[in-house]
Design a protein that fits this description.
Shape: globular
Radius of gyration: 17 Å
Strand order of the largest sheet: 2-1-3-4
Length: about 220
């Protein structure tokens, strides 16, 4: 049995999406995005008190990138990984882990806009810098998707993979702080991803808990 410890609209969403795409049996243990993640019971699963945490056949994992690699290796028949020797293996690894570069900027902005409890703690400079860094990440994705090769509907020439899941989920979060309008190829790619059943199944329910209570957070003017 696979158990995913999940907070809606967090990094654990990429693992939830992947599990849906893999078509394997699993269950989800949903958590609130609060101090309960520091409880000893949860820290035994994830020592830093972060999601995701994954339990699989008595073993425990933390770090979403590691989970993605492990699950794709464990279930190769789904075709979402790229094995050693595959022509797209290097690019697959790069883009799977590029998702964390983008997510770090999202995390900084989530803290600035949502987690800090007094306005005096917030920094308009940090908000603008981190939003600009997200845009630079979008530009990297745009350059990749604009490469003039066949089948550039996805990040890899060989088609849809966990790389699209990881980066697509990071873009899902990043769109709360930086718009995709200046990046047409990225916007079109993201729109295609949102049509997938696995993506839709990984979204928070209408009445469920969520981190973001609005669609977009503007950087402060100061």
């Amino acid at each position: 049995m696979i158990t995913l410890h999940h907070v809606p609209q967090s990094r654990s969403m990429r693992v939830l999406w992947l599990l849906h795409e893999l078509g394997v049996s699993f269950r989800v243990q949903e958590h609130a995005f609060d101090k309960s993640l520091r409880a000893p019971e949860f820290l035994s699963l994830s020592p830093a008190g972060r999601v995701p945490a994954l339990e699989i056949e008595g073993e425990r994992m933390f770090e979403s990138g590691a989970m993605v690699e492990y699950l794709c290796d464990r279930f190769p028949e789904a075709g979402l990984g790229r094995m050693p020797g595959d022509m797209d293996r290097m690019a697959w690894l790069v883009w799977v882990h590029f998702a964390e570069t983008l997510s770090q900027h999202v995390a900084a902005l989530t803290q600035q806009h949502i987690m800090l409890y007094e306005d005096a703690m917030r920094s308009p400079i940090v908000m603008k810098l981190e939003a600009a860094r997200i845009a630079k990440c979008y530009a990297a994705i745009e350059a990749r998707l604009s490469t003039p090769v066949e089948n550039r509907d996805h990040l890899l020439t060989s088609g849809f993979s966990a790389a699209d899941i990881c980066v697509g989920q990071a873009v899902y979060m990043a769109r709360h702080f930086a718009r995709l309008d200046p990046f047409p190829q990225t916007a079109a790619w993201y729109e295609r991803l949102t049509e997938r059943e696995g993506f839709r199944a990984s979204l928070p329910t209408e009445d469920g808990t969520r981190i973001y209570d609005r669609d977009f957070y503007e950087a402060w003017d100061g």
